[in-house]
Design a protein that fits this description.
Elements: H1 3-13, E1 25-28, E2 36-41, E3 45-52, E4 55-58, E5 60-63, E6 67-72, E7 82-87, E8 92-96, H2 107-114, E9 126-132, E10 135-143, E11 149-154, E12 167-168, E13 174-180, E14 187-193, E15 199-202, E16 218-219, H3 231-239, E17 248-252, H4 254-257, H5 270-284, E18 288-291, E19 295-296, E20 309-313, H6 320-332, E21 336-341, H7 367-370, E22 371-372, E23 377-378, H8 385-402, E24 406-409, H9 412-416, H10 438-454, E25 459-462, E26 484-486, H11 488-498, H12 510-513, E27 524-528, H13 540-543, H14 548-564, E28 568-572, H15 592-596, H16 598-616, E29 630-634, E30 642-648, E31 655-661, E32 667-674, E33 679-685, E34 702-703, E35 714-720, E36 725-730
Helix pairs in contact: 5-6, 8-10, 14-16
Length: 731
């Protein structure tokens, strides 16, 4: 044995070889081209045999550490073979040699990945169930360019990183190894040896499934085989523009919407949720469900926003196929599915992306760029092509494999600004000396261009709280290319207004009207989200002033304003029936309230009716993002804290007029401006007895009087309910 091969064997025994295929497996002998040698490293074996062609030959143990080889004379062509090893516990194991298979990832795939444009890389990296040369198994691939060595750990090798050492493919930084006979359900991890000889155990960044917390191993899992039945939904989705369709979204945290009544610690499965959540959402009249992050995460209290498995649906509720069933059932019931998605940061958990190969691989090295001081999390390095590829492919993955209708992108503001939540000296300006994160901005534009190129009907929604220009404007207009943006300004203003006692509201009247100065600068979604009912902020019901009757009346009026104001709608679970306590992710919502208290039932019925009227009334959703869909009727009645406006469809003749009274006083024979002569009929009052109100409403038709009032050319005379709103339409 020459010195070169000895040094290569030493590297394998030391578990630090970048390409063990140079030594292990089948090799033609240099000094005898007609013969060959087969080598294997089995550090836990006493004896090893080669099995081929019906023969079993004992291999020679050349190193006490467990290095075996056998010379095959008069043979210089590779052939199928297996090993049999005898271990110290006298257990015998027969297995195929992973080191007799050629590299499988093409140079082109590697080039695209390193260039940031291999958008379906989830079909290549990670653990893929494949058959090679008639042999079934799993091919593992992971990106770790600075690692000295990467191995696969699992029950199949006693979690010993010396056994299945991977090879790096050229200069791509991608490591690969095919292990025969490894199938669905097998737990595994990667062992990464850093340049400093530290050993890291890492979950697979491209895992499709994971062990249930607190365990952290990845699980080999295929995503094929589910028989989808949502073709009609997908066809309809392609035809309709979401901008001029009704969109009333129910935001849900799956772990706390409901729990098993018999065992409150048990989370419901995706299948159980499909049987209970979907009928409820359909009955309540919501058009979409938005799920707080269902990607794998270790800590329940993070609500899913600290993701450790970007390609893995959380195992808390079942398998990937179970979640496919949930989405499929939503679609078959006419309900769209939006996922919360977190490309803005990731946790520092040791088993996940943090310093994955011993270096700042997915994040920045400098904490002024790579760490969030506020959240204790890490920031993706958006300037790195492979990181861009990882995130864009992940967004596409959910739409491709799980038929997801859209993504709500979390914390976009933190991506856009280098000084986000930082003091002076804690951040590094961009190359122009500014605070904008140029790499992140370019990444967002790239992402939206690719997603809308492949899924034109996708809902890409930015949770962005600043006045950054053009978040939901097209790329060719200089925008970021999102489809929608959350209107955080309206939400903050209106909750601040509703917290005031009605007697003081006239001093804050501009809070009701200010949003209309910018309502059409973006494609806004109006959110009443989970963030508003946690951490001491109180439930929506208990943000309202007054006694219980007034709290419920105020909350109905808040929902009325949400549903009639321009923009699409989002409401967090529990608000629809007046959840009293703050939301807590570890317990079920207080569903008993709807069974024990009529006021909660009535509020729930009101939201159901509000959704029904909303969907049936085209002017409330057909022109949401243009002044063509909105006209003030009266915004000057400050003393009464009353506003009135008209919502118009694409045909201005198709309109409704909304009046909102933010005080408890009842007014009769009140002038309500309307945009056209004719007869008007009330179609909704928040104050009817069935909703828990005082039953002030307008049962009779009203004829418009051709006399201007407010901003309107005509008016009708109406009764105004206390802390209430009405909608009238021409008949």
């Amino acid at each position: 044995m020459n010195c070169d091969i000895n040094s290569e064997i030493n590297r394998i025994i030391a578990s630090e070889h970048h390409d063990p295929f140079q030594v292990l497996g089948f090799h033609v002998l240099d000094h005898d081209g007609a013969s060959s040698v087969i080598r294997t490293f089995q550090p836990n074996a006493n004896t090893c045999w080669l099995i081929a062609g019906g023969e079993r030959k004992e291999m020679y143990k050349t190193r006490p550490e467990g290095f075996f080889e056998i010379v095959i004379t008069n043979c210089n062509e590779p052939f199928p073979y297996e090993f049999e090893a005898s271990f110290y516990d006298e257990h015998h194991h027969v297995f195929k040699d992973p080191y007799r298979f050629l590299p499988q990832m093409s140079e082109y795939d590697r080039y695209l990945f390193n260039n940031g444009t291999n958008y379906e890389i989830y079909n290549t990296l990670g653990a893929q169930l494949v058959t090679i040369d008639g042999v079934s198994g799993t091919i593992f691939r992971v990106w770790a360019p600075s690692a000295k060595r990467v191995s696969i750990l699992g029950n199949f090798n006693y979690w010993d990183g010396r056994v299945h050492q991977m090879r790096v493919l050229g200069h791509s930084g991608v490591w690969e190894l095919f292990i025969p006979d490894i199938g669905q359900g097998e737990p595994y991890k990667y062992e990464v040896k850093t340049q400093q000889d530290a050993l890291l155990e890492k979950a697979d960044p491209f895992q499709f499934f994971s062990e249930i917390r607190p365990k952290t191993a990845s699980i080999v899992w295929g995503l094929d085989g589910y028989a989808w039945n949502d073709a009609a939904w997908l066809k309809k989705r392609k035809k309709l523009r979401s901008y001029d369709q009704p969109m009333s979204t129910y935001e849900v945290h799956l772990g706390s919407w409901r729990r098993d009544p018999a065992d409150p610690t048990r989370l419901l499965s995706y299948q159980e949720l499909a049987g209970s959540l979907i009928p409820y959402v359909k009955e309540m009249g919501f058009t979409h469900i938005e799920l707080m992050p269902i990607m794998e995460h270790p800590l329940d209290e993070s609500w899913g926003y600290q993701v450790t498995g970007y390609f893995a649906v959380t195992s808390r509720h079942g398998t990937p196929q179970d979640f496919m069933y949930f989405v499929d059932q939503c679609h078959q019931n006419g309900i769209g599915v939006i996922l919360d998605w977190v490309p803005s940061h990731f946790p520092s958990d040791g088993h996940a992306l943090s310093r994955f190969d011993g270096t700042a691989l997915y994040e920045h090295e400098d904490p002024r760029q790579g760490a969030h001081p506020e959240w204790g999390t890490l920031i993706f390095n958006y300037g790195r092509k492979e990181v861009q590829n990882f995130l864009i492919a992940n967004a596409l993955f959910w739409m491709d494999k799980f038929h997801i209708d859209g993504l709500r992108v979390d914390a976009v503001a933190s991506m856009l600004y280098l000084d986000y939540a930082r003091n002076e000296g804690e951040w590094i300006p961009n190359i122009y000396g500014g605070k904008e994160n140029i790499d992140a901005i370019e990444f967002i534009k790239h992402m939206n261009a690719i997603i809308y190129g492949r899924f034109p009907e996708a809902l890409m929604i930015a949770e962005e709280s600043t006045s950054f220009f053009g978040v939901s404007k097209p790329l060719n207009w200089g925008g970021l290319g999102f489809g929608y943006k959350w209107n955080m300004g309206w939400m903050n203003d209106i909750l601040g207004y509703f917290s005031k006692e009605p007697i003081f509201r006239k001093y804050h009247h501009n809070a009701l009207t200010f949003s209309l100065l910018y309502a059409f600068t973006e494609n806004f979604i109006l959110p009443m989200s989970h963030d508003e009912v946690v951490h001491g902020k109180r439930s929506l019901l208990f943000k309202m002033p007054g006694d219980m009757w007034q709290k419920f009346a105020n909350l109905r009026l808040l929902f009325f304003f949400l549903w009639t104001h321009p923009g699409k709608k989002l409401l967090f679970m529990g608000a629809e029936f007046g959840q009293i306590s703050e939301w807590y992710c570890k317990v079920s919502l207080d569903w008993h309230l709807t069974e024990q208290n009529t006021m909660h039932q009535q509020l729930q019925k009101f939201v159901q009716q509000l959704n029904a009227v909303y969907k049936e009334t085209r002017p409330l959703w057909e022109v949401d993002f243009s002044f063509d869909g909105f006209r003030w009727m009266d915004f000057r009645d400050v003393d009464n804290s009353i506003i009135a406006f008209c919502r118009q469809g694409k045909d201005p003749k198709d309109h409704v007029v909304c009046l909102l009274n933010f005080t408890p006083q009842v007014l009769h024979d009140y002038k309500l401006g309307v945009p056209a002569p004719g007869w008007y009929q009330e179609i909704l009052s928040t104050d009817t007895a069935e909703f828990g109100g005082s039953n002030v409403f307008n049962p009779d038709r009203k004829q418009a009087i051709a006399e201007p009032f407010g901003e309107a050319p005509c008016h009708i005379m109406v009764s105004v309910p206390p802390l209430g709103g009405i909608i009238v339409k021409p008949v």
